[in-house]
Amino acid sequence: MVYESVPRTVRIILLGEPGVGKTSLILSLVTEEFTEQVPPKAEEITIPADVTPEQVPTNIIDVCLAEQSLEQVAEEIEKAHVICIVFSVDKQETLNKVASYWLPFVRDNCPDDYRKPVILVGNKIDLIDYSVIDNIWDIAEEYPEVDRCIECSAKTLTNVSEMFYNAQKAVLHPIGPIYSIEEQEVLDEVKSVIAQNIAGGIENECITMKGFIFLHCLFIQRGKNETTWTVLRKFGYDESLELTHNYLYANIKVPIGCTAELSYKGQQFLTQIFEKYDRDKDGMLNPTELKNVFSCCPRIPWHNLRYTVPTNDKGFLTLHGWMCRWTLMTLLDLQNTSAYFAYMGFNFLENESQKTAIHITREKKVDLAKKQSSRNVYQCHVIGPRSCGKTSICRSFLGIAHKKIKPHANERGDGYNTESCCINTVLVYGQEKYLVLKEIPITRVSDPLQPHEVNCDVACLVYDVSASRSFEYIARIYIKYFAESHIPVLIVGTKGEAMIARQEYILQPDVFCNKYQILPPQFFNIKENKQDIFVKLATMAAFPHLKHFASLAGDNSTWWKAGIGVAAATIMGLVLIRMLNIHRR
User: Fold this and answer.
1) Which among 67, 147, 244, 367 is placed 20 to 30 Å from 289, CA to CA?
2) C-alpha to C-alpha distance for 438 and 379, rounded to whole angstroms
3) pTM: predicted TM-score of the whole model, two decimal places
4) What residues have CB less than 8 Å from 482, skipping those under 6 apart?
């Protein structure tokens, strides 16, 4: 068998039946958005080296049998370094054609002594609620050039970037030279030694933990210490049996204007961890179960969960709260997220660096240019004078505003400034988004805000409607920090159940908002605990170009209708522009 040297440019070709989503996968990768209207075939895409994980330029080639002959497709296969064969997971016939037509066709157009790696791609997983991977193993056994199988969705962007990354990796780090799938050998003799010497060392033809420990004791007794050390170093341990710094802290860079979120793979891993340690299967982690989760870590990384994320009445973490807490930690303390993923075994279970568990968002200036944010996590700073009700708003977001809870100034913090944050999810036009509320502490009205206290996705300026001097502070804050910025602002009046006092300021709140073309003040009442304010904050963060709402100074229904109209117009405009650009090429 001949293996090609590693190329300087990776060339990926997408094959498959019509309608399986080849073109949509390419467009979703490039634009980070999904459109229903796609051309029959995408033009060749070139991705620069500096935006690929392996720092190698990558060309992506689409194939359309309606526009190309089989001879032309064969020529593209010959020029490609890796072939992605796409099928639709909801249509069995497209998977059948993978084995009956496409794989033989690829073989026929590759040299006899060199089989190019093949990635099998099951698209449209958003249409089903089960996995089809088990149906592919027989194909992989018959065609050893199948490097791996991956399920994805061009519509939800699930695993789209991972698909192309794995295709690139199949070329740059080929499995063929170091492992023969056709000639795989099971270590029967080793298993036999373990089975004969220790009870429970082998179960279901697999080596158990007891068997694994016995095997390494055997290595050490026979003077093969290097074997055990090779294994330990493979999993990040140094000579002191501590995980190394490089193993714990993946080199993940977050450029200015970008943020860190959990990738789909990271979310899957955390869901599996939650389900594994939820021993009583009640859908939550009690204190003992939570302690067990982090038993292999230096400490439990969080405290005061009741005040930070949604919990049950006892303060136990639900799966929803669990995902919220990790989302917050990833946003504000990425290095610790990386370390704890390593401690919990992500590198071992996924056989990849923690980098694949993290998604770095595009720059905020791109969101502003596209008039829509692609992020799933938004930061909202809650700013206002002391005792105006900022804490009540934050706790209302978690559904605990009605409870008597000690002020969190006296609570033990996390050590990385998240004690003043809370996080929950809201729906923005039917899509679930995470909203982080960070309360900005104000000691004296004269104190200036620091840049990190101003910079956010949306600001919530809070005043007490019953205090006549309360609005003046946030009015001055708005004029000084937000009037000329791109940050959307929502003004919220708290204690709406009290008598509304006339504000001792040159402009009353509604007149002020009208002058600066922002939404009129929204009134908040703890007893009502309505969530519409949080939905508005998240929506404003998702559509940052809608900072000014002068024409929407009417009721809330007008605001929502206009918001939906603007969102629809924005999306349709992007689709039309993209279609025109494609046809011009």
Assistant:
1) 244
2) 7
3) 0.63
4) 454, 459, 461, 489
